[in-house]
Amino acid sequence: MEMDNKKIDDFMRTTAGKDIPDSGEVKASPNMQILGEYLTGFSAPLVFEKGVLVRPTADIIADLQEMADLTHDEVNAAMLFYGFRPGRNSSGSFGWLMRPE
Question: Would you say the pTM of this structure is higher than 0.70?
Answer without folding.
Answer: yes
